[in-house]
Amino acid sequence: VRAAHEAGAAWGRLPAKERSVRLRRWYELMMENKDELARIITAENGKPLKEAQGEILYSASFLEWFAEEARRVYGDVIPASAKDRRILVLKQPVGVAAIITPWNFPSAMITRKVGAALAAGCTVVVKPAEDTPFSALALGELANQAGIPAGVYNVVPCSRQQTPAVGEVLCTDPLVAKISFTGSTATGKVLLKHAADTVKRVSMELGGHAPFIVFDSADVDRAVAGALASKYRNSGQTCVCTNRFLVQKGIHDKFVEKFAKAIERELHVGSGFDAKTTQGPLINEKAVEKVERHINDAVSQGASVVTGGKRHSLGKNFFEPTLLSNVTTKMLCTQEETFGPLAPVIKFETEAEAIAIANAANVGLAGYFYSQDPAQIWRVAEQLEVGMVGVNEGIVSSVESPFGGVKQSGLGREGSKYGIDEYLEIKYVCFGGL
């Protein structure tokens, strides 16, 4: 933190173009080393290599985007009510930003935050997840090669035992001006409490419980393809993964049948380094146990296992991609975020019923629905209580789009033209005596 603070004045005073050039060079180095960086991700969290390669391209794109945005931090001149005054609005870096990131996207969750922070003129201290420190350190090596000055990008890896203490230090140190965290809602609340005493700026991208609604008018084949992509990417371990499938009565049986066949045909469990693998291991034993608990609870209350349902024969942390039908809103899997390869399907009758079920959660990160009725598309998109909506689309993340949630899914937005605002203070200058 002290190193970041000491480096901050010089970095913040650099012309925006110079910061832009160095961020651009960092992006180029990521692209030159993309295969090695992807292998690090797969070795760290088991993600299939093809997905890891996709993450590196996505990750690097944030450095490219914010290298460009660095030169577009515009202030304002506001017409004054008095003749002898001029009102100016300046935007300035907030200062040292503490960046706390998760294991499921160990590269992209760093660059999405750090790219914006460095473009704004802030310096950063990155605390990567204890499961995936190497991706953060590799990015640090490339930052050095790109000419990012010492102290501007700092990494503090630590053990699981030390994580709470390190998090508390980052949130309470008076030299830290900003906290940006991606992770669980429970941890986010702890960090918010720590940050309150020094009234730090905070960005929180927390847990989700994404609904995926399939209306009777939907193109079933497109809905199945979207469901497969949305649910089983990274073995169901993303914050925007679908957690609850709501399928309208008239199309329900057809959807479940086609979805089950697609799961069995297209998903392959195995080592992330095996070219045919689409489903790697879960991150740890605790994650596997949670999936098992959700399945057992649902089955005990009358749910049916359509496909999958148990640990994979490969053993360890591998689990079969699972589809459940006859699911109700009273089951654990529809009340909690599973964060694993489990797709529970709830049958509904009316649009109003689907909206009510979708909005019953106290979180609201992403939501998806499939419909070919234009009026219904407008109604549902506006009524879903989430920060991001996919309409006839199962993958919504892109560098140009504002990423974030409502309710207990977080505060602030990342990526897009809005992402850099999280690292800027607005200063009003009243120029009088004219």
From TrEMBL:
Documented EC number(s): 1.2.1.24
Superkingdom of origin organism: Eukaryota
PROSITE patterns registered for this protein in UniProt: ALDEHYDE_DEHYDR_CYS
Domain Aldehyde dehydrogenase: start-end pairs: 1-429
GO BP terms, alphabetized: gamma-aminobutyric acid catabolic process
GO cellular component, one term: mitochondrion
The protein's enzyme class: oxidoreductase
Localization of this protein: Mitochondrion
Catalytic activities: succinate semialdehyde + NAD(+) + H2O = succinate + NADH + 2 H(+)
Pathway annotation from the record: Amino-acid degradation; 4-aminobutanoate degradation
Keyword vocabulary terms for this entry: Disulfide bond, Mitochondrion, NAD, Oxidoreductase, Phosphoprotein, Transit peptide
GO molecular function: succinate-semialdehyde dehydrogenase (NAD+) activity
Pfam family, one: Aldedh
Subunit and interaction comment: Homotetramer.
General function of this protein: Catalyzes one step in the degradation of the inhibitory neurotransmitter gamma-aminobutyric acid (GABA).
Family membership noted in the UniProt record: Belongs to the aldehyde dehydrogenase family.
Protein name in UniProt: Succinate-semialdehyde dehydrogenase
Gene designation: Aldh5a1
